[in-house]
Design brief:
The chain contains 14 helices and 5 strands. The protein is of the alpha/beta class and about 400 residues long. The chain has a 5-stranded mixed sheet, with helices on one face. Helix 2 packs parallel to helix 8, helix 8 packs across helix 9 and helix 12 runs antiparallel to helix 13.
C-alpha cells in the first residue's frame, strides 16, 4: 500500500470508529416526528370549530368572536358564573376592575393555567390599543411616529464597508459557532482516541505497518471529517428548527434569504483549514499526555477556541486595527477573515493571502504533530516537559 492509501485507511477507521449512520438517521427521524406531532397539535385548535367561551363582566370590553374566542356579555352574577366555570360550561370569566392612570385592570378566572390565555391577552391588548388610539384622535401613522420617533441611517466614507442590507454578519457568526462546535467535537474525540491508544499501547504495534507521520495524518483527517459531520448535522438540525418555527408555528413561508450564499464557499474553505489546524495542534498536545486524569497539559487543548473568542470581541469594528491583524495572522485568520469578508468588501489578494498563510501553518502543524506524536507515544510513566516539547518541535 502507498502512503496515501495508508493515510486514508487510518482516516476511514478513525471516522467510522465514532460515526454511526443508523443513530444519525434515527435522531433526525425522531426530530421530524416530534415536529409533525407539534404541528398537528398546534393546528388542531385552528381546525376545530369549537371556540373558547369567555363570559365578560364589563361595560367596555369587546363582545363577539375573535380568532379562537367568543366573548359574551354576562347577565348572571359572578358567583353563578364561577359555578358554570367549574362545570366547564364556559372556559373563562373576564371581569373589569378599574381604570387607574389610564390603565384598565382585568381579572381573568379559569379552572387552570392554559396556553390559550396568552392568546387572549394578546387580543385584549390589541383591542384596547386601537380603542385608546381612537379616543385620543390619533391615526395609525401618528401612533407609529410616537413609537419610532427617529430613524438613523449610517453612512460611511469608507466605501468598502457593506450596508446593513448587504452585510452577512448572521452567516459569519453562524459559521464561527459551527467551527467552535467542530473544535469541541474534535477535542473530545481525538483526546480520547490518542490517550486511550497510548495507555493500551496499541500504537506501538501499528508502527510496524506505517510510520508515525502517516498514522497521525490519518487521525487528523478522520477527526476533521468527524467534526465536519457534526457541523453538518447541527446545521441540518438548525435549518429544520428554523423551518419549524417559521412555517409551522408562525405560518410564514420558508425563507433563508438572510444567508449570503456567495460567501459560503469561502467560509467552507476557511472552516476546513481552521479545523485541520486545530485538530493537528490538539493531536500534538494529546500525544504528550501520559495520564489524562492528572495532566496539566489538557487545558492547552482549548487554545484553538481563542481565535473565535478574539474575533467575537472585535467584530463590531471590522475596519479596525485589531480585526486587520487577526485576519492576517496565520493562527487566527481562519476565524477573523470570514467575518471581515461578511462585514466589509475585502480585496481578493487579502483573502488569498489569508488562505495561503493558514495553509502553510496547517502544513507546519501537521509536521509538528507528526514529530510530537512520534516522540510522545513511546514515552510511558513520565510526560515530556515543555522544554522537551519545544526541542522536538524545533528538531
Amino acid at each position: 500500500m502507498t502512503q496515501h492509501n495508508k493515510t486514508w485507511l487510518v482516516a476511514k477507521w478513525e471516522f467510522m470508529h465514532f460515526f454511526k449512520l443508523k443513530q444519525e438517521l434515527i435522531g433526525k427521524a425522531v426530530m421530524l416526528l416530534i415536529a409533525l406531532m407539534v404541528f398537528f397539535w398546534h393546528n388542531s385548535q385552528g381546525l376545530s370549530s369549537e371556540k373558547y367561551q369567555v363570559a365578560v363582566i364589563s361595560q367596555s370590553a369587546l363582545i363577539g368572536e375573535f380568532d379562537l374566542f367568543e366573548f359574551k356579555k354576562a347577565s348572571e352574577p359572578e358567583v353563578v358564573l364561577k359555578e358554570q366555570l367549574n362545570n366547564e360550561l364556559i372556559d373563562a370569566i373576564l371581569v373589569e376592575q378599574m381604570v387607574d392612570k389610564g390603565i384598565t385592570t382585568f381579572k381573568l378566572y379559569s379552572v387552570g393555567k392554559h396556553s390559550w390565555q396568552k392568546d387572549l391577552s394578546t387580543i385584549l391588548t390589541t383591542y384596547y390599543s386601537a380603542k385608546i388610539t381612537q379616543s385620543l384622535g390619533l391615526t395609525q401613522r401618528q401612533l407609529q411616529q410616537i413609537k419610532n420617533p427617529i430613524l438613523i441611517e449610517n453612512h460611511y466614507l469608507d466605501t468598502k464597508i457593506k450596508s446593513e442590507a448587504h452585510n452577512s454578519s448572521e452567516t459569519a457568526v453562524g459559521v464561527l459557532i459551527l467551527i467552535g462546535l467542530g473544535i469541541f467535537v474534535s477535542f473530545a474525540q481525538i483526546f480520547v482516541s490518542i490517550t486511550g491508544e497510548k495507555q493500551q499501547r496499541v500504537t506501538e504495534q501499528l508502527y510496524a505497518c506505517m510510520d508515525s507521520q502517516t498514522w497521525i495524518d490519518g487521525k487528523i483527517l478522520g477527526q476533521m471529517l468527524l467534526a465536519l459531520k457534526a457541523m453538518t448535522s447541527t446545521l441540518i438540525s438548525i435549518v429544520l428548527g428554523f423551518g419549524f418555527f417559521q412555517v409551522i408555528l408562525n405560518g410564514q413561508t420558508f425563507d433563508l434569504s438572510f444567508i449570503d450564499w456567495s460567501l459560503l464557499p469561502w467560509f467552507l474553505l476557511f472552516s476546513i483549514l481552521g479545523l485541520y489546524l486545530a485538530t493537528a495542534f490538539m493531536a500534538a498536545i494529546a500525544a504528550a499526555i501520559d495520564d489524562p486524569n492528572h495532566s496539566g497539559k489538557t487545558s492547552f487543548m482549548m487554545l484553538p477556541l481563542v481565535p473565535m473568542i478574539l474575533t467575537f470581541m472585535v467584530m463590531d469594528s471590522p475596519s479596525g486595527l485589531a480585526m486587520t491583524v487577526l485576519s492576517y495572522f496565520p493562527l487566527t485568520a481562519f476565524a477573523a477573515m470570514p467575518v471581515k469578508m461578511a462585514l466589509i468588501e475585502v480585496p481578493m489578494w487579502q483573502t488569498l493571502l489569508a488562505i495561503a498563510s493558514t495553509g502553510i501553518t496547517c502544513w507546519y502543524a501537521r509536521r509538528l504533530a507528526g514529530k510530537m506524536f512520534k516522540m510522545g507515544m513511546v514515552m510511558y510513566g513520565k510526560e515530556p516537559g515543555y522544554k522537551e516539547m519545544f526541542k522536538w518541535a524545533a528538531s
